[in-house]
């Protein structure tokens, strides 16, 4: 495996997501159940709307005494760094470093212009590929 392979070649397709209308309690439980640090937030059409992380959940807990019933939409980050499936892992590494982020969402553009999340590539994924590079 090399850093010039595309995200599609390197990553299993599939993404843990939740609706923007999901409660933070539901999102937190899903993160715990799946042992993940973030969920991709999607709108009613299944399109990328944002990302909610463990840090966002902590912020909600600090800011709202009723955090459990707040929605993902209220605390998610709508400014998601995304890449298309043809992008190389080297470019993902550059984005993570340049933007000081932990993950990018891989999206597929549909014919009608919709942005569908299909995978997430994290810094941990890149470290895995670095260690296992042949």
How does this structure look, described?
By secondary structure, the chain is of the alpha/beta class. It has a single domain, classed as CBS-domain. 37% of the residues lie in helices and 24% in strands. The protein contains six helices and six strands; from the N terminus they run αβαββααβαββα. The strands form two sheets. Strands 1-2-3 form a three-stranded mixed β-sheet. A three-stranded mixed β-sheet has the order 4-5-6. A hairpin with a 5-residue loop joins β5 and β6. The longest helix is centred in the N-terminal third of the chain and has 11 residues. It is globular. The termini are close together.
Helix-strand category: alpha/beta
- Total discrete domains: 1
SSE sequence, one letter per element:
HEHEEHHEHEEH
Number of helices: 6
Average of pLDDT: 91
The parts where pLDDT drops under 50 for at least 5 residues are none
Rg value: 15 Å
What sort of overall outline do the alpha carbons produce when their principal axes are compared? globular
**Number of DSSP strand runs:** 6
**Can you say what the CATH homologous superfamily is?**
CBS-domain
CATH class reads Alpha Beta
| Content of β-strand | 15-25%
Distance between the termini: 6 Å
Please give the order of strands in the largest beta sheet: 1-2-3
CATH architecture: Roll
- The CATH topology label is CBS-domain
Major pleated sheet: 3 strands, mixed
Helical fraction: 25-40%
């Amino acid at each position: 495996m090399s850093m010039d392979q595309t995200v599609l070649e390197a990553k299993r397709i599939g993404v843990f997501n939740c609706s923007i209308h999901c409660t933070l309690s539901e999102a937190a439980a899903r993160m715990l159940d799946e042992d993940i640090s973030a969920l991709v937030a999607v709108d009613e059409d299944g399109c990328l709307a944002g990302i909610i992380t463990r840090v966002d959940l902590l912020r909600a807990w600090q800011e709202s005494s009723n955090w459990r019933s707040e929605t993902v939409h209220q605390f998610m980050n709508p400014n998601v760094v995304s890449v298309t499936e043809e992008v190389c892992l080297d470019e993902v590494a550059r984005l993570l470093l340049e933007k000081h982020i932990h993950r990018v969402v891989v999206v597929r553009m549909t014919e009608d212009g919709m942005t569908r999340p299909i995978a997430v590539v994290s810094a941990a994924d890149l470290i895995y590929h670095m260690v296992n590079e042949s």
